[in-house]
Each structure stands twice: as structure tokens, then as C-alpha cells.
Amino acid sequence: MSVDASGLESERHLLERSGTAERVAAILRQYITDGVFAPGERLSEPVISSALGVSRNTLRESFQLLAHERLAVHELNRGVFVRELTTDDIEDLYVVRRATECGALRRAAELATVDLSGLERALADGRAAAAAEDWPSVGTASIHFHQALADLAGSERISATMRQVLAETRLFFVLNENTREFYEPFLDCHERILRDLRRGRFAAAEAALDRYLRDAEARLLELSA
């Protein structure tokens, strides 16, 4: 099954100033992060290059970048596919997530001010999606919430690392059935973390985040068993 690239034409304006492979990879990475391109789907060269208006060579370079980030795999004589992950991947990725996100909160605690607006927006989006019983969108809002957490550190390298890690994390969500049972607990955890941050209780927020990530890892491992 090939990916649905119909929405990519709307992304062409992002390439107007720089049609580089890095920018193409960033767009495709975002589509993976948002769950538009799912694990196991084929990334069709002709379809995507036409939708974005870029050359096959540029697209192939972007595929190489995604492969380096472990988001895509090339299969001989078959093409490039969104990667499907294993239980070992889950365990390792959550080690990285705990180190990155909790570390970002410790760094944020050292700053004079932090901007919580990204967290506020992501939580509001998640609540609205839950009210509409749009559970995949609750998952997307959760991804945005955790990116905003990492961004609190004020480090582009931490933010960039988190973008890659969260794109991989989204690949795990295919293990669930897009149910309320899976996604709704995210919202209460996010609310708890944000409440602590509003009060300047960074250590408490970090502890809540660590518990959240360990619980999420355990649930995904259970689903993948």
C-alpha cells in the first residue's frame, strides 16, 4: 500500500526559497509525526516528487536522510517504506525520551522565564479532539505537547533531537486501535505536568513526566507483545 500524498501539494510553498533535500525530509518527517504516513506504507517517488514539485534526485536524498533517522527503509526492488519498529526500538526510544525530555525540564528550571504557550495550545487541541472523539488527533496533540516540553530548554539541538525522536514515537501508535482507552489518559498526565510548570514546580513536573513516559512505554510493550 502506498501513502496518500494528496495533501503534499499544499506544502509546496515551504520549498519556494529552498528546495533542498533537508526541507523535503522535514516535510515528510512532519507527515510521519502527524500520522499521515503510517508504518509499512510505501513512499512513492513519482507521487511525492510530483506533489511537492521536486526532482527525483532531491527526493532520493531526502529518503536517505529519513533512513539515517530510522524513519524509512529501502527495500531492494520494492522501494522506500515508512519503517515498522520492534519492541527493542520501543525500549531504546523511551530511554532517549526520558533523558531528553526530563533533561529539557531541568534546563528550563535554570532559565529566568519559560514560555508555556506551546504546551497550553497542545493541551487545548487534545481536549478539543477528545470532545469530538477524534482519538488519532489526540495522539497528534500529545506529540506536539512533548515537542513543546523539549522546546522549553531553549536549545535548537534538543528541539531537533526531539523532532526525530517523536517522529519515531508516532510509528508506535499504529500498535493501538485509536481508542479512547489508549489516548485519553495522555490528557490528564499533560494537565498534571502543565499545572506543575505553571506553579514553577519543575522537579514535580519532571517526576510526573518520568512516570508518564514509563507508563507509556509499558503500555506500548504490552500492545506489541
TrEMBL record:
<dbReference type="InterPro" id="IPR008920">
    <property type="entry name" value="TF_FadR/GntR_C"/>
</dbReference>
<keyword id="KW-0238">DNA-binding</keyword>
<dbReference type="InterPro" id="IPR036388">
    <property type="entry name" value="WH-like_DNA-bd_sf"/>
</dbReference>
<dbReference type="InterPro" id="IPR036390">
    <property type="entry name" value="WH_DNA-bd_sf"/>
</dbReference>
<keyword id="KW-0804">Transcription</keyword>
<dbReference type="Pfam" id="PF07729">
    <property type="entry name" value="FCD"/>
</dbReference>
<dbReference type="InterPro" id="IPR011711">
    <property type="entry name" value="GntR_C"/>
</dbReference>
<dbReference type="InterPro" id="IPR000524">
    <property type="entry name" value="Tscrpt_reg_HTH_GntR"/>
</dbReference>
<protein>
    <submittedName>
        <fullName>GntR family transcriptional regulator</fullName>
    </submittedName>
</protein>
<keyword id="KW-0805">Transcription regulation</keyword>
<dbReference type="Pfam" id="PF00392">
    <property type="entry name" value="GntR"/>
</dbReference>
<feature type="domain" description="HTH gntR-type">
    <location>
        <begin position="18"/>
        <end position="85"/>
    </location>
</feature>
